[in-house]
Amino acid sequence: MQFHHEGYVSTDPRIKAAAGVGLDRPAELPDTVDVLIVGTGPAGMITAAQLSQFPSITTRIVERRGGRLAIGQADGIQARSVETFQAFGFAERIIAEAYRITEMAFWKPDPADPTRIIRTARAIDDPAGVSEFPHLIVNQARVLDYFAEVMALSPTRMTPDYGLEFRGLVNTGVGEHPVEVTLARTAGEREGDEVVVRAKYVVGADGARSGVRSAIGCTMAGDQAFHAWGVMDVLAVTDFPDIRTKCAIQSGSGGNILHIPREGGHLFRMYVDLGEVAADDNGAVRLTTVDQIIDRANEILHPYTLDVKNVAWHSVYEVAHRLTDRFDDVLPDELDTRTPRVFIAGDACHTHSAKAGQGMNVSMQDGFNLGWKLAHVLTGRSPEALLGTYSAERQPVAKALIEFDKEWSTLMATRPEDLDDPTELEDFYTSTAEFPAGFMTQYPPSLLVGSPNHQGLATGYPLGKRFRSAPVIRVADANPLELGHQHLADGRWRIYAFADAPAAGEPSALADFASWLTTSADSPLVAFSPEGHDEGGLFDIKVVYQQPHDELDIRRVPEVFLPRTGPFDLIDYEKVFAADPRADIFDLRGIDRGGVIVVVRPDQYVASVLPLTATVELARFFEPIFTVPVLAPSLG
Fold first, then answer.
1. What is the Cα–Cα distance from 155 to 390, expressed in whole angstroms?
2. Model confidence over 82-114: pLDDT tens digits?
3. Angle CA(132)–CA(596)–CA(535) in degrees, nearest 5?
4. For residues 372 and 88, what is the distance between their CA atoms, to the nearest angstrom?
5. What is the rounded CA–CA span in Å between residue 319 and residue 271?
6. DSSP letter, residue 461
7. H-type alpha helices, 450-571
8. Which of 44, 176, 267, 482 has CB 3.0 to 4.6 Å from 205, enough for a Cys bridge?
């Protein structure tokens, strides 16, 4: 965290100075906004948190409830989500309060007595070490609280507008704010009154029964598995030995439990198999009481017992896998004629079982993908065509998720004796660990993902996949850090220059690249940053040297990697790194020692890999992404 660059402060450095629309933010919903977000779930809140960092953008997020969510249904936080939390500044705090999953236990019927269950296997949760971040369990409500804090401390001082329900919208096609949205008050003296807001863009993050989705004519297709599960968060006394370990439990009675310990050391969640549901059930299974769920859990756990003392929350649901045909309001025959004005995200786009722990995680990546793109367009830095990439990138991810969840939820509901292999469930869990951790997403070449011609120069940074962190040493202060942890959710593109190491007297590719960045008319810094504007508003440019940090002279580092900041023109020393000799990033990520450029999008996905000499290709990559120079700083 950097501060004091505008003068000494003794207050909480997380609180950014109010700026732009945050200076006189009205308490009441204004008549016109740049972005209206419907729904304060994970997808809506992360979109709002990203947009809140841009003082020139008026964003409001509305919610039909009268206040914050008290008890959330989702609780699984995959490592990719924790990486994202790091970008928003609260990873360390949420890790401290969460339950950490390190392994999973598998319980099956005892061959000697199938009425009893025994532990048959343990599996490491992250056997391949795909992330330095843990797999967590924490209530969805707390995740939303953290994003709300990010918004409140941002330059725009954003807070949700509670007590407003979506009723409908129409894209009038008229004026600067063409989308007319009708809302209704759900509480207070004016309950029932309608409110009309005009917006440039609307984001529907309003859940599986999304009104925004219906309003733009999207179709959600899929299937019903006709299998019901009771889920309960409880405090209980039990003799089951793995009560504080994540477990997949398959009983001889044919029932199954997915058991998940919760944060706090005492609470836990059980997904309890209620069996097949008749096609003509008409929802009757949803009348199953919590006492019936507890009784069923005790049957499955035999010979162990569960004495439930308190039920924090419970529900009954039937597995359904559904995917929306598109994630915006552009019809197939309009693709070449206009850009989107209305988007949907999260459960409004995709529904599936809860047992893979993917709903909240994938929904947040929807919002992260969309938020910075809206900001780029609204601040004038990118063309509206950028918005078309949201649905194109995120719908295939949701499709892959649903296919994965179908297989996992089917295995969870299968009797042990009906499996092709006795270890099929645990083998699937181990072999697919990278997918549920959130790291199999790979966006194809597009406007935002470049050509794979030079992929061999950095094999550990596959194009279209998330930028995987690695240890480095910060040269100025010898601090060991994770390079990826320096990537903030501030809407900036990252350009990482991995330096060559020429012998004394030989030309340096890094020096030539640094000179081009600051002097050439083709350089993105020169082409897209107005005169006198701090280039940090568009790009965050870092260098990683091969040499040990104590062999480098900070005075010889090119000035582009030591940018000036703030009203006092202070030097930023936190962009110069050296390889950590204990875990050399060049070796860990397959980086060519002749020098490499790695370009990373604002949402942390690798966009381009080039040699240091490929300045023409770098310029061509950015040309269609940026439009005209940004005329004012976009960040507070």
1. 26
2. 999 999 999 999 999 999 999 999 999 999 999
3. 85
4. 13
5. 12
6. S
7. 509-519, 524-528
8. 44
Tell me if residue 258 falls in helix, strand or coil: strand
Is 50 in contact with 37 (CB distance < 8 Å)? no
CB crowding 604-617: b at 16 or more within 10 Å, else e:
bbbbbbbbbbbbeb
pLDDT tens digits along 408-438: 777 777 777 777 777 777 777 776 667 767 7
Of 206, 223, 225, 226, nearest to 349 by C-alpha is 206
Calpha distance 244→260 (Å, rounded): 8
Backbone phi, psi, residue 473, to 5°: -115, 125
Q: CA of 507: how far to CAs of 88, 191, 519, 547, in Å?
A: 40, 72, 18, 17
DSSP H or E run through 15: none
Greatest CA separation for the chain? 82
- Strand ranges in 350-470 using DSSP code E only, listed in sequence order: 350-351
Alpha carbon distance 537, 528 (integer Å): 10
Alpha-carbon gap, residue 88 to 490, rounded angstroms = 8
Q: Which residues contact 282 (CB under 8 A, 6 or more apart)?
A: none
User: What angle, rounded to 10 degrees, do the helices at 140-152 and 42-51 form?
Assistant: 20
CB 45 within 8 A of CB 144: yes
Cα 490 to Cα 27: distance, rounded to the nearest angstrom? 25
